[in-house]
């Protein structure tokens, strides 16, 4: 385990933002825009999921399957194998964990980590409905993961790392939590260049997965500095073309890397 972190104003405002989403089952953010899906305009919750193929959602209750705050399919990117242990960073309502739990099977395990109590409550309630036996949701922070060193074969995350105020610390924690030879599969939002200080100070834009986005090259470099090898970042689509001042600057991406065996 690592040391507890100092909770920043950024964590607090992101947590408030996602507590509201959990209570109202609202979608939001860069997430919807990246896939041409509904953005958070209020009103009824959407009933389809723009990121996951229908067969992955088969048998999952419609409201659980539709509640996505992500920006891609981090689970398929991970190419999970039966028996693997997976950590999902920022597990939200739990959908990634439920899809992953079926792929790793009874001998595998999935640990979802989230800092928002309302999201954890939603994920726990969903797990009870799905009667999962290999999924564990834990309260905790990406910057200080509530797991022992070398716990996971795979770390997945869907549109969360951009929200962290200390990404180098998140990458160090991911490295620590992986077994040697383990891998990461991340959907996230990144920037082409540095965003303005004004945008970065706007906590609504930050909470919506926009202004916390790191430049793509800096992201790759910080992963390497944390010890990762074979870092690949593949652009998937524009993420903020409806936001004045951010048009053409943000992209949803698929990121893979691994911790070497030695
Ligand atoms: C954009 S949502 C994504 C949720 C889920 N992965 C999905 O695709 O629906 C971000 C989630 O990450 C959590 N989160 C954000 N920053 C975090 C941090 N630093 N530590 C732990 N959880 C965090 C939020 O509480 C929220 O549930």
Model description:
By secondary structure, the protein is α/β, with parallel strands linked by helices. It has a single domain (9-258), classed as Rossmann fold. It contains 11 helices and 8 strands. The protein has helices at 9-24, 29-34, 54-57, 62-66, 74-78, 95-104, 117-130, 167-177, 197-201, 203-207, 216-225; strands spanning 85-89, 109-114, 135-139, 152-158, 178-191, 214-215, 229-238, 250-258. Strands 1, 2, 3, 4, 5, 6, 7 and 8 form an 8-stranded mixed sheet that branches. Helix 1 (9-24) packs parallel to helix 7 (117-130) and helix 8 crosses helix 11. It is globular and about 45 Å long. Residues 11, 14-15, 18, 68-70, 90-92, 95-96, 113-116, 119, 141-143, 158-160, 163-164, 209 line the site of S-adenosylmethionine.
Helix content: 25-40%
Shape annotation? globular
Given as residue ranges, the uncertain stretches (5+ residues, pLDDT < 50) are: 33-44
How does the major sheet shape up?
8 strands, mixed
CATH class: Alpha Beta
N→C terminal distance:
21 Å
CATH architecture title: 3-Layer(aba) Sandwich
- H and E order: HHHHHEHEHEEHEHHEHEE
Number of domains: 1
The count of helical stretches stands at 11
Short description:
The chain is α/β, with parallel strands linked by helices.
What tags apply to this protein structure?
35% helix, 11 helices, single chain, 262 residues, binds S-adenosylmethionine, alpha/beta, Rossmann fold
């Amino acid at each position: 385990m690592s040391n507890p972190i100092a909770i920043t104003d950024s964590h607090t405002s992101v947590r408030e933002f996602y507590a509201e989403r959990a209570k109202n089952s609202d979608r939001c953010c860069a997430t919807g825009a990246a896939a041409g899906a509904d953005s958070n305009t209020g009103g009824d919750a959407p009933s389809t999921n723009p990121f996951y193929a229908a067969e992955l959602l088969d048998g999952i209750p419609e409201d659980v399957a539709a509640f996505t705050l992500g920006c891609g399919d981090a689970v398929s990117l991970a190419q999970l194998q039966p028996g693997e242990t997976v950590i999902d960073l920022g597990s939200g309502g739990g959908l990634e964990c439920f899809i992953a739990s079926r792929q790793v099977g009874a001998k595998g395990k999935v640990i979802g980590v989230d800092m928002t109590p309302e999201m954890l409550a939603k994920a726990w309630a969903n797990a009870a409905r799905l009667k999962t036996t290999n999924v564990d949701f834990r309260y905790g922070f990406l910057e200080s993961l509530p797991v022992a060193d070398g716990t996971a074969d795979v770390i997945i995350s869907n549109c969360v790392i951009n929200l962290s105020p200390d990404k180098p610390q998140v990458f160090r924690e991911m490295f620590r939590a992986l077994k040697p030879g383990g891998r990461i599969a991340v959907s996230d939002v990144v920037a082409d260049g540095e965003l303005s200080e004004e945008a970065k100070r706007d906590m609504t834009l930050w909470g919506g997965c926009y202004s916390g986005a790191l430049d793509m090259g800096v992201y790759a470099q910080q992963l390497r500095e944390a010890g990762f090898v074979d870092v690949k970042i593949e652009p998937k689509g524009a993420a903020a073309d409806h936001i004045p001042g951010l048009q053409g600057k943000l992209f949803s991406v698929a990121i893979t890397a691994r911790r070497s065996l030695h």
